[in-house]
Design goal:
Layout: H1 15-25, E1 27-31, H2 36-48, E2 53-58, E3 67-69, H3 71-75, H4 79-95, E4 100-107, H5 108-113, H6 121-129, H7 132-142, E5 149-150, E6 153-157, E7 162-166, E8 175-183, E9 196-199, E10 205-209, E11 213-220, E12 225-227, E13 238-246
Antiparallel strand pairs: 1-11, 2-3, 2-4, 4-6, 4-7, 5-13, 6-13, 7-12, 8-11, 8-13, 9-10, 9-12
């Protein structure tokens, strides 16, 4: 019987070139970061084995904190209506120029803390992201030797999902580098949205990363960015694992 490796790093990465790129701009896309077999296994977990909840926010004030809904909460009586009300409020906030977002999510951290599926694939994913081999890759590319751990959530930006402009300014929480480990369809079309876009002070796009299969986006925070709107005609959601590498 063949044993599958869930999180095997591509041995052919040009780490020096990637580190040079990150040093120049504070961001980088590492394509083919894992072996193909490992990436396909994780994509399958996200597509077929993830009970998606929702993350929603309608404003950037203390009165409008982000709200996460588990799959069980959505499926409970009245749960879907509550999510839809929050999603409409997020859209209204964004229309006013305020901060808002709406996307499907499954917290890897909560899965571990609350024992949703001990030893299951999502718990193993978080373990592998925090393992020495992957953390050393991240430290080598970013140049941040003090990085010690990572959080994470599975995310899916399906049609009508988006993440408004923000900067991830949670330095006090130890956030140093944001990451998006992409497992999008290999034929992802630019018209389907879901781009990670970086903005200057005037709101102009200075760089953007297309959703890709088996690509790791990393960028130093704070840094102004957003995930562009996925239109209703997009045939699939943008799958990824996202979070922050921390120094404490």
């Amino acid at each position: 019987m063949t044993t599958r490796t869930l999180f095997e790093i591509n041995p052919d990465l040009d780490r020096a070139a990637l580190a040079k790129r990150f040093a120049q701009t504070g961001r980088v896309q590492v394509r083919d970061v894992l072996t193909r077999e490992a990436a396909e296994e994780i994509q399958s977990i996200l597509m077929k084995g993830t009970p998606w909840g929702m993350a929603v926010r309608a404003g950037d004030s203390p009165d409008t904190p982000p709200r996460g809904f588990s799959n069980a909460e959505i499926m409970a009586p009245g749960g879907a209506d509550q999510v839809n009300r929050m999603a409409n409020a997020a859209a209204q906030a964004t229309a006013r120029g305020d901060y808002g977002f709406r996307y499907a999510q499954f917290s890897l951290v909560e899965a571990v803390q609350k024992g949703w599926n001990p030893g299951g694939p999502h718990e193993l994913l978080l373990e592998h992201i925090n393992a020495d081999a992957f953390m050393e890759l991240v430290r080598e590319i970013t140049g941040f030797d003090t990085l010690s751990n990572a959080d994470g959530q599975a995310t899916m930006f399906a049609p009508q999902h988006y993440l408004g402009r923000h900067s991830d300014s949670h330095v006090a929480e130890g956030w140093k580098v944001a990451y998006v480990l992409n497992f999008a369809r290999e034929d992802w079309h630019p018209d389907w949205g879901g781009y990670l876009l970086f903005l200057d002070d005037d709101g102009d796009v200075i760089e953007g990363f297309r959703p890709r299969f088996n690509a790791l986006n990393m960028f130093a925070v704070p840094q102004s960015h957003l995930v562009s709107f996925v239109p209703p005609f997009a045939p699939a959601g943008r799958l990824a694992i996202t979070g922050w590498f921390r120094d404490r």
